[in-house]
Request: fold
Amino acid sequence: MKNVTGDAEKCKEALKKLLPAEDFLTFDFCSAGGAAFCVVFADPLTDKDLLGQQVISPLQNYRGKLRAEDVAEAIFSPETKTEKSVEKLAEEVLSGNPVVLFSDMDMAVVVGTKKIPVRAVAEPPTDVTIKGPREGFIEDFKTNTALVRRRLKTGELKIDTLNVGRRSSTTVAVCYLEGTASQKTVEEVKQKLNEIDIDVIPDSSYLTHFLASRPYSLVKQVGTTEKPDIFAAKLAEGRVGLLVDGSPIALTLPYLLIEDFQSSEDYFVPPYRATFTRLLRLFALLVAIYLPAFYVAAQLFKLQLFPVKLLLTIAGSIRDIPFSPSLEMLLVLLVLEVLNEASIRMPKYVGMALSVVGALVLGETAVSAGFVSTPAIIIIAFSGIGLYAVPNLIEQTSVLRLAMLLVAGSVGTYGIILATAFVILYLVTTENFGAPLVAPFAPVMGRDLRDSIVKYNLGSLDKRPKTLKSPNRRRLA
Amino acid sequence: MRIGKFLQTVPMKLWLILAAAVLFSFFSNDFGLVDIQKTAIILAAGIDKTEAGFSVTTQIAVPKGSDRTTGGTSSVEIDAEGETVSDCISLIFSKTGWVPKLVFCNLIVLGEDAAKEEDAVAHLNYFLRNDYMPDSCLLAVCEGKAGELISSTSAIDDASSLAIGKLFSEAAVKSGKVLTNTLKDFAIDYYGVSKCSYLPYIRMTPQEGGQNDSQTAAGGSGGGSSSGGGQEEQQVYSAEETALFKEGKMVGLLPREQTLALSLLKGNVFTGTFNTEDGGKPVTLTVIKNDGGVSLDSAHAPKATLSLSVTVRLCCRGVTAPVEDIASDSVPEEILENAKATLEGYEEKLWELCKTSGCDVFQLTKMLYRSSLKKYSEWKDVLLETVTPAIETKVISMK
Amino acid sequence: MNKISTRQLLFFLACITPVGKIVILPALLSETAKNDLLFPFIASYLLQAAAVFCALLAAKKGLNFYELLAHTFGQIAAKILVTLYALFLLFAGLLPILEQKLFVQSVFYDTLPSLVAFAPYFLFAVYLMAKPLSSHGRVWDILAPLSVIGIAGIFVLSFGSADFAALLPVGAAGGKGFLEGTMSATAWFFDAALLLPLLGKFEYKKGLAWKGTLCYLAGGAAAAFFVAMFYAIFQEIAPNQLFAFTATSKYFSGITMLGRIDYLFIFALALVMAFYVTLPLEAGIECVLEAYGRPRYLHTGLAVAVTAVFLLITALLDYRFTEVLDAVTKTAFWIIPAFSLAAPPLLLPLRRKQHADR
Reply:
């Protein structure tokens, strides 16, 4: 590693060599004492007003000793540090922090005057609540840590930063409450992060692959949230959180499947309402996954699943349909997925028109043209809506729904039962960071069940989930 | 090392093969299974005895299509003759190309000849053996040919089976006007120690002035469905009588009064009515509470007790009555006495009919069997002839 | 996941084991023992409960099945015995799989499908058998409530159609009926045998043997009640109702309007059965792994091989269930009781510590 020498010019050359792009600028000036100073900074990432006021202006009047500590003291910024290594200095410049070089220096001075364009804190579109806080994380790491700190005003909140990514050098903060989170989990998370050898981490979702015990799994193994209140609540439960610079999505570990059936709102409404809503979510999810499959299986293999009058109605509807029941359902499901995908990606004004075209024109015309039957459209519509009752699991459940449909169309109801058995076996044998994915159901953890599908009164949730192996389980005094 | 590496990639390859197999079977979709579009949904079947063996008439639901503007169920009747019931069902398949599915068959009607001449269970054997046949299916006997009944045009419903199904509704059973039985219960009685059972007896009468531009039509013995359009006589059905069966053969017929008596003894009746007299004029009473039962005392010589208790209210009185009488629910004592006499008469007649036909419709043999194996062996063959009946009837007025 | 907890074991004994006994067995018992079907059923359950007690007591020694044998008889003899036992478990597992096949072909389809419809079960079986046996504990956590809901749902829907007087008169079938019934039930009673490969995978806690036996008997009581209800519903035609728990609930009045809602419960029990019928095979594999070590390739290889053999046998014995049943319950009726009733008590006197000269 190359260190700075007393020659500022040489050091500037070395830095320029490491940062040859044109948007890395240098500014040379002399102090009142006659010393030559040079500031190296990244043009788009540095607040030049602050640089002028806090760095250049005081140094132009500087008459003191040319020692890094003294120079740093003369600078009006609260964020200064000294650094010897040229590579480290280059990293600081890349992060937006200007570097001050001067003649006869022992070390260079780094000043924290970076200015990165950020958007305002707003309600995340994927996690809308009616009751409760509406703030969401943004892409700015500092803002995000501020949002967390605001909710956990305790020295026990540790935010340990690491840099991940050979090229991106993305800042990843490992957040946890000391004495509450399992130290073993914290260490394991840090170890896994340190082991990551990838060039760029553009988003937190990249990390999930490296943090999962089964990286190729369909099943989610890392919790995600865009809301600081949820993030803080999860830290308070004893989880470890990860904030990634440039990503509004925070990660939490260990992840339990039940988390996605819980909403922050559940804690702001009476427990019976929260229980009802959770049951509703579970029901909606099961309907979303199984309804198209059972509809097809019943038509192909087991008519008895329909009451006779419903059967006759369905039989009437599908009489002139040119496709087999399974193919018809697959077709409608694919159309739904395409519409869904397109409406997310399309510009808003087109998306609106597209949903009208999709829902009304396409559906209605397809039915009247005899391509598909009305019951198939109803089933898929119901399934499609059901999927959104648990928005965090959409990716997984939509694949599962398709798989169930294919199995149902191939083997019928027994196929669905076997596929369910597969899923159960897979889920119960999945663990991440020592926490079983389907806890507190398998293994059953009696007390943890109080905040699972059934939600007890807050007074009864006096202990932290056993699954998370927190050293301090008591929450309520 | 190589094996280890190979094994590591095996799961992924297996998943791919599995996915390919699922996709293949999904798109080929053929395990010799029959989907809804190839299926004949049989709603009802009628069985008649013919010289060749059997004639089975099935009523098959025909979907109306997505453009239908009116509700209801269209149906087509297909019949076939063969040596066995199974032959007939197979013939229906070969005639229509639809695979007959019995999973929704909710009514089997036996023609009178089929019920009287041979063991009915021999005709029903196919249905009892069939795993896909719901044994909760209703069973009945009809006057004349079952095929004609099934193929007839109902005045009240789209399909005759649906109209007949209404006769056997829960409400109808509670009225005491009809006694229903299912394939399962009939078989239990048949294979039980008494070997006696009963079935509702359906009569069909033309609805005067009623003709229908029907969508249903009877197929001839040549089979096949025929399209509707002809002007057919509309029929109404009644099942107030009950056929008695012994060892699978129809051995007697209970008229409507005895059907009511048997219903009352079973304790089934709620809001059913019966007539008695009040000073020579008819009066109708509504049963609002009914307890009934048959017990057998086999300590010495077997003695059966037919006990019946009904709570009644006045429904219709054939004499001029003051307004206070209309407002009151209580039944005068003399009417209660008459009602008791009427019901006892019904019960006596019921006992007589059962005894003469040899049908142990009260399942006395079963009671004896369950109470004592020794007594059962002693009395089983002569029970109905030797047992003395005691009739205990209580008619109470609603206050 | 490496250990089965006491709770999971009790869930298995109370909730999972009864499911296998309410499929074909009630119809078979009603054929042989008629209205006295409860007696052979209860007798079989009591005998098996005693064996379960012994099997659980053997866990006190803290050793697995192979170690228990090896400490007393030496490694070679233990290997032979364990291999024999594994073969027995595979033998015992055959009938439940054929039963499951018949059940699937009959209940899940409106027309009789080919064997292909049942073939995917073997894919599932490979996957399940390739997992460690101890991972079953968590599966039982999920299956236990499913089983309870399934059985309770069927009870509720069926109870109204039952005439329990049909179980009278007591003793009508006589000693012969009782004996034949007990013999035909043997094929379904080998739960204690399934516990032996689980030894060493759960910790013996005070009173576990009693608790386990009571749980097993509680499950048995539920199953016995179901068997009684089954006969009370079907009486003389009970032998004709091959798949008992799918047959009793269809007379519920709400079904006319709602359709076969009872299928929800039937499906739940079918899911439980898919795991339960695979357990003997998995237990057999576990025995071999305990004796010969457990490299991954051996475990997976055995899972694939056993499944392939069973797939072949199932294909060969297609629709020969009755013959297999006769073979298991009449010709070789002694095999299952010999292993499942005799093996657990025989383990009790075995040494806990390895013999010094071995």
Notes: Residues 271-300 of chain A form the longest helix (30 residues). DSSP finds 15 helices and twelve strands in chain A. Residues 8-111 of chain A form one domain.
